[in-house]
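Weekend entry, working from home. Most of the wet-lab plans are on hold until the incubator is repaired, so I used the time to fold the two sequences that have been sitting in the queue since the last round of cloning. Logging both here for the record. First:
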Amino acid sequence: MYSIQEVCEKTGLTAHTLRYYEKEGLLTNIGRSRGGIRQYTDENMEELGLICCLKHTGMSLEEIARFVQLTHEGEQTLRERVRMLHDHRENVIARMQEMQMYLDKVTWKLNFFTRKLENYESRVKEEKEA
């Protein structure tokens, strides 16, 4: 069992975010101590890992909540979950390709301006020596 503080330390999420995910139905089956303190299991941590992965790769919280709901509905929802993950994967690939184009452009510009800087510094050095 993990306390909310331990989960925050392990994931980098805030307690507010964890409570929000629970309230919105993204993070489910959070146990409580007799005193009402949240207690997270390894299963909760695994679920949280998937939530964070999907969120960081651009899936909306609404879509994540739908995926979690389908997971709890059982195997009869496997087709829809596979479709959701397939579509999400395709979106991630497309965004990665787009980002690669931007990275290539930035790299080209960096090389261009680096050469200009080297030429400029070489001219300044020659002028000082003359």
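Second, folded right after the first finished:
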Amino acid sequence: MLIFALFFQDGGGSIFSLLLPLLLMGGIFYFLVLLPQKRQRQQLQEMIAALKINDEVVTSGGVIGKVKEIKETSLIIQSAEKSFLEIGKSAVVGKKADN
């Protein structure tokens, strides 16, 4: 509130003094929300590109399986002893944590 009081002391205010708080909020939003999301998305894409056969992955649907084949836009995973699923690479949300 102190910042806003400093800008509007004279009562009139120029257009710059009206836009400055909006620009500051936009900058804060970018650095606190958009930039971390961009980094996280990039790390996920790098992880998916680095997947190898026998890596265990988790999908967005909660399926956990071992990578058996890597195709251009999809993966064949083995989720049970004889159960093979073809999933899109975009469905992978991470590697299974080692216990």
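Plan for Monday: verify the second prediction. The two ends are 49 Å apart (CA to CA).
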